[in-house]
Design a protein that fits this description.
Elements: E1 2-7, E2 17-22, H1 31-40, H2 42-53, E3 65-69, E4 77-82, H3 93-109, E5 114-117, H4 129-142, E6 150-155, H5 158-169
Parallel strand pairs: 1-6, 2-4, 2-5, 5-6
Antiparallel strand pairs: 3-4
Helix pairs in contact: 3-4, 4-5
């Protein structure tokens, strides 16, 4: 699987699936989640409401992933995953890595060949950017999905992109 870093807006990515750093309600929110729901339109929210009424009555658990339509987005699907809130007193990195691994697994089930990820948990959930990139790359480099041939890590802002390039250059 080819892994690329891209500075930009995840809602503009022309890939089979984009990953949404969702909140557990699946009903939209701020940051990446809000942008995806706004640009994707009401079809995404409609499918999320149906998921809440059936499989996820208590919300989507942290680290799990589920797909909906891409609505008006260039991507065919949105894969929603809930990242953990950063804690300096508790190691939640396994949950963060689960977000990437489970999203890739959902993409593979959908037979998506290209997937774009945001930097999960690095916004309002407070995960330090450098470590968030390291956690993402750890999973993306270790997994060998059957269908996904391209994974993009879409980084919002030049500063975040610069940190990600530095981490990726020293990654082994």
């Amino acid at each position: 699987m080819e892994i690329t870093l891209v500075e930009g807006d995840i809602t503009a990515q022309r890939v089979d699936a984009i990953v949404n750093a969702a909140n557990s309600s699946l009903l939209g929110g701020g940051g990446v989640d809000g942008a995806i729901h706004r640009k994707g339109g009401p079809a995404i929210l409609e499918e999320c409401r149906a998921l809440r009424a059936s499989r996820y009555r208590d919300g989507l658990p942290i680290g799990q992933a589920v797909a909906t339509t891409g609505g008006n987005l260039p991507a065919r699907w949105v894969i929603h995953t809930v990242g953990p809130v950063f804690s300096s007193g508790e190691d939640r990195s396994v949950l963060l890595r689960d977000c990437y691994a489970n999203s890739l697994q959902v993409a593979d089930v959908l037979a998506a060949s290209s997937v774009a990820f945001p930097l999960i948990s690095a916004g309002v959930y407070g995960w330090p950017v450098e470590d968030a990139v390291r956690q993402a790359l750890t999973v993306l480099n270790a997994v060998d999905p059957a269908h996904v041939t391209e994974a993009r890590l879409v980084l919002f802002g030049a500063d975040t992109y610069t940190v990600a390039e530095r981490v990726a250059a020293g990654f082994s």
